[in-house]
């Protein structure tokens, strides 16, 4: 079996069309068909079911596709490691974050990372399905929530994030330091939309005490949410780190109990992907920042909710 045959095979898997795959590879369609027949003869199995002009990958083909992906991933890893041995400090580092506060967390170490790796192009973006993007090798590392269910991903726990209630200085609850979750059920809330990760966590917490919330306003931008709260239009529930970074002194931040709303933050990367020096440096810088700011000293309250 030759790498060229596997390359041709993977192209067909991607296109599910011999003619389009041949055009992508720069060869003729008959030549590609001959290569696939030769590969099938070598393996003694059919890799594709040919249904007229359409094709479908067989069970044997699926096995070969998965293993071929691993082979090409390992080859790419070799090239990346050889490049680093030659001290070629360039390339891209793509970082994902599940939510806005995690994107801000990643941003705080960017300056130091740039000083160490000035020629590395760094990108960061947010997505609710960030773990899937890591698995598909669309991004290098990501900040997400525990637990990480995909066994192909490695996770590095960072810290526990707790959600707090934020109100304006003249709100009826502004003189409180602690409030129970049930006390919030009757106040006006400004929250993220229902499909956002943080909103799912909040909804699950309220459901655990037997009721659902109906926010008066839903907004995607945290700054817009806090602007309304500062103006006295409702209250909000957000992660403590995000509130600390956005609070200019006009908000009262109140601890929530019974249950507290918590989530565990982790860094994830693909187990089979080579993690280069720039990515390792980012991870180490982030861990150092978490320790310096004592975020990792947070412990779970006695009564808390962490799942949704």
UniProtKB/TrEMBL annotation:
<keyword id="KW-0238">DNA-binding</keyword>
<dbReference type="InterPro" id="IPR050950">
    <property type="entry name" value="HTH-type_LysR_regulators"/>
</dbReference>
<keyword id="KW-0805">Transcription regulation</keyword>
<dbReference type="GO" id="GO:0003677">
    <property type="term" value="F:DNA binding"/>
</dbReference>
<dbReference type="GO" id="GO:0003700">
    <property type="term" value="F:DNA-binding transcription factor activity"/>
</dbReference>
<dbReference type="InterPro" id="IPR036388">
    <property type="entry name" value="WH-like_DNA-bd_sf"/>
</dbReference>
<dbReference type="InterPro" id="IPR036390">
    <property type="entry name" value="WH_DNA-bd_sf"/>
</dbReference>
<keyword id="KW-0804">Transcription</keyword>
<dbReference type="InterPro" id="IPR005119">
    <property type="entry name" value="LysR_subst-bd"/>
</dbReference>
<dbReference type="Pfam" id="PF03466">
    <property type="entry name" value="LysR_substrate"/>
</dbReference>
<dbReference type="Pfam" id="PF00126">
    <property type="entry name" value="HTH_1"/>
</dbReference>
<protein>
    <submittedName>
        <fullName>LysR family transcriptional regulator</fullName>
    </submittedName>
</protein>
<feature type="domain" description="HTH lysR-type">
    <location>
        <begin position="1"/>
        <end position="58"/>
    </location>
</feature>
<dbReference type="GO" id="GO:0005829">
    <property type="term" value="C:cytosol"/>
</dbReference>
<comment type="similarity">
    <text>Belongs to the LysR transcriptional regulatory family.</text>
</comment>
<dbReference type="InterPro" id="IPR000847">
    <property type="entry name" value="LysR_HTH_N"/>
</dbReference>
């Amino acid at each position: 079996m030759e790498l060229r045959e596997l390359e041709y095979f993977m192209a067909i898997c991607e296109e599910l069309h011999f003619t389009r795959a041949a055009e992508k590879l720069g060869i003729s369609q008959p030549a590609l068909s001959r290569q696939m027949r030769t590969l099938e003869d070598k393996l003694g199995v059919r890799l594709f079911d040919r249904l007229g002009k359409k094709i479908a990958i067989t069970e044997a083909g699926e096995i070969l596709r998965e293993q071929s992906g691993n082979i090409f991933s390992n080859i790419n890893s070799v090239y990346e490691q050889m490049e680093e041995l030659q001290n070629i400090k360039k390339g891209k580092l793509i970082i994902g974050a599940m939510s806005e506060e995690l994107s801000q967390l990643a941003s705080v170490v960017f300056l130091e990372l740039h000083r160490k790796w000035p020629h590395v192009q760094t990108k960061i973006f947010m997505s609710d399905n960030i773990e899937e993007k890591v698995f598909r090798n669309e991004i290098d590392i990501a900040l997400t929530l525990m637990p990480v269910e995909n066994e192909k991903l490695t996770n590095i726990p960072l810290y526990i994030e707790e959600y707090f209630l934020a109100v304006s200085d003249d709100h009826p609850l502004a003189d409180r330091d602690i409030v129970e979750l049930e006390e919030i059920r009757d106040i006006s809330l400004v929250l993220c939309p229902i499909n956002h990760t943080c909103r799912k966590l909040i909804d699950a917490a309220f459901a655990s005490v037997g009721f659902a919330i109906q926010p008066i306003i839903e907004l995607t931008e945290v700054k817009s949410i806090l602007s309304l709260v500062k103006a006295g239009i409702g209250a909000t529930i957000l992660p403590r780190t995000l509130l600390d970074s956005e609070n200019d002194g006009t908000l009262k931040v109140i601890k929530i109990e019974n249950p507290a709303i918590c989530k565990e933050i982790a860094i994830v990367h693909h187990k089979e992907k080579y993690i280069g020096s720039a990515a390792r440096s980012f991870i180490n810088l982030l861990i150092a920042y978490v320790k310096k700011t004592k975020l990792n000293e947070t412990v779970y309250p006695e009564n808390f909710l962490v799942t949704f």
